[in-house]
Fold this sequence. Notes:
This is ATP-binding cassette, subfamily C, CydC. One of its GO terms (cellular component) is plasma membrane. Keywords: ATP-binding, Cell membrane, Membrane, Nucleotide-binding, Transmembrane, Transmembrane helix, Transport. InterPro entries: AAA+_ATPase, ABC1_TM_dom, ABC1_TM_sf, ABC_CydC/D, ABC_transporter-like_ATP-bd, ABC_transporter-like_CS, P-loop_NTPase, Type_1_exporter. There is one protein chain. This protein has about 575 residues and is of the alpha/beta class. The chain has two domains: about 1-315, ABC transporter transmembrane region fold (Up-down Bundle); about 335-410 and about 485-565, P-loop containing nucleotide triphosphate hydrolases (Rossmann fold), CATH 3.40.50.300. About 60% of the residues lie in helices and about 10% in strands. It is built from 20 helices and twelve strands. The protein has helices spanning about 5-10, 15-45, 50-100, 105, 110-125, 130-150, 155-185, 185-205, 205-210, 215-265, 275-285, 290-315, 375-380, 405-410, 425-430, 440-445, 465-480, 495-510, 545-550, 555-565, and strands at about 335-340, 350-360, 365-370, 390-395, 395-400, 410-415, 425, 455-460, 485-490, 515-520, 530-535, 540-545. The chain has a six-stranded mixed beta sheet with strand order 6-9-10-3-11-12, with helices on both faces. Helix 8 runs antiparallel to helix 10, helix 10 (about 215-265) packs antiparallel against helix 12 and helix 16 packs across helix 17.
Amino acid sequence: MKELNEVIRLVVLEKRDIVLSVVFGFLAGMSAVGLFASSGYLISKAALMPPLYALTVLIAFLKLFGFARALGRYAERYFSHRATFTILSNLRLSFYKKLEPHAPRVFQKYRSGDLLSRIVGDVESLQNFFLRVYYPPVVLVIIFLGTIVFTSIFSIGVATVLLVGLVLTGLLIPAWYTVKQRKLGNKVRHARGNLSTEATEFLYGFRDLKIYQQLDAKQENLQHAADAYLEEQEKDSMQMLSSHSWNTFVTLLVSWVVTGVGALLVAEGDLNGLFLAMLVMVSLTVFENAVPMAVLPSHLQDSKLASERLFSIVDGEGEDKGTLLLERGNAPEIVLSQVHYRFPGETRDVLKDVTITIPSGSKTAIVGASGSGKSTLLQLLMKFQTPVMGEVTVNGYDIQHVTEESVWQHSNVVLQENHYFYGTIRENLQLASDDSSEEEMISALEEVGLSFKLDQPVLEKGENLSGGEKQRLSIARAFLKGERLWLLDEPASSVDALNEKEIYKHLYERAKDDTLVLISHRLSGLERMDQIVVMDDGSVVEQGSYDELMKRQGYFYEMKQIENNIFS
Length: 568
C-alpha cells in the first residue's frame, strides 16, 4: 500500500466528512435492515390475523425506518461525494505543486501524450479510491457487526452463518480477486498511455504525415493502439464481472442457508416461527452492503497503479534544496568549475570538464557547432539541469543552494523554442511584466522591428506568427522584464540580418551594465563581446576576446574563415 501513502494522507485530511459519511452510511444500512426485518415480522404476524391495533406499532416502525433510510442515504451520498471532490482537488494541487519545479525536465523523460494520460486519466481514476476502496469496508463491517449482534438475540446459528458470509464476501473473495487483479498488472494503463501518445503524435504530426504520405501507416498504428486498449479494458471488465458474480452467488447461498437453518431451528422448537421470515429478510438485505466489495479489488489495484504512475513523474526528481535568494538589482558573476553533465539514462557526457568565468557586467558569447553542448550549458545556468560533477556558482554561492525561482525571476531568458499563449500580443508581453505600460510595450516591439497592435490576436503556439516574428516577440518580452542577467540561446537565428543588427544594437544598450550570456552559431557581430567561449564536442577549446582569438588563428579563426567563405 506504499503506492497510496500520499493519497491516504490526503484522504485523512477530510476527517469531518469521512466521519459523517460513515455515520450516515451506518444509519442508512441499519435502517434498511430494520425496514426489511420489520416487514418480514409484520408479514408473519399479519398471517395470524391479530387485531389491527397490534400491527399499528409495526407499521409505524416501517415508516420510521423508511424515512431514516432515505435520510441516511441522502446524507451519506452528500458527505461522501463532497469528501471525494475535496480529496480530488487536494490531490491535483499536491501533484502540481510537486510537478511545477521539475516542469523544465519532465519532457526529457516522458512523451507529451503519456504525460497527458497520467495527469488527466490517473488523477480521475483516483477519485474512486475513497468511494470504492477506503469507505465501503468500514461501513460494511460496522453494519454487519450490528446486524450479527441483533440476529444473535434470536439465533446464534443464524448469526454464525451471517458471520461466515461476511468473511467470504467481505474478505476472502475480494482478497482472491485482488491477487488475480495484481497479476493483470497495469496493462490497461500502459495501453491507455500508448493510445494517448499515438493520438497526440498523430494530431501534432498530421501535416508532416500528409506531406510524406505516411498517414495510412500512422493511422494503422493508432488503430492497433486503440484495439489493444479495448482488449485490455475487456479483460479488466471480465475480471470485475467475475468478482461480482461470485459475490452475488455467495450472498444468495447464505440466504438459502439461513432459510434452511432457520426452518430446522423452528422445527426443533429453538426458534419462534414468527421470526423466520424476519431473519431471511435480514440476510437478503444486509448483503446489499457487500455489493461494493465485489468491485473493490479492481478499484484498489487501479488506484495503486494510478498513484504509482502519477507520482513516479516527480518521485524520481530531487527536491529543490536551494534556500538562498539572488539580490535584485545586481549583475551576477557566474563561474563554472570542471563541470560534467550527461542526460539521465545516457552514458555519454554532453559536457566535459567545462571551466568558464563570467564576470559581473560582462558580455560572454558561447559559440560552436551544432551539438557541441552550448544549449545544455545554458540549461545548467538556469538550473534546469544539475551537473553530475563540478560546480556552478552565482556570486560565489553554489547554484544548488540558490532557489530555482530566484534564478528564473532574476533572468531575462530567450530560448530556441519559446511558448506563445492563445490571446493577444499584449497578454503575451505581460508575461514578462504585469506593470508594463502600453508605451513600454510598444517601444519594446519597435526595438525588435515589430509593428504589431497590442490587441492583435495570437493563436495557440503562435501559429499565426512567422519564425522570425516569434523570436522577436520573445526578445521583446525579455526587454520588458529588465533584469540584470541575460541568458539568450540563438535569439535571432530566424531573423534577417538587417533586423538582427538592429535588435543587437538595442540589446547592448539595455544590457550595458548587465551580465549577458549569448549562445550563437553565428560568428558575426561578436566584436563587442568581452569574451568568446568556443566549444566542441562538449568541451571548451578556446576562450578569449574576438581580437585575441583571431590573432591566435585557432579553432575560432578557422570557423570564422569558413563562415566568411560561405556568405561572401
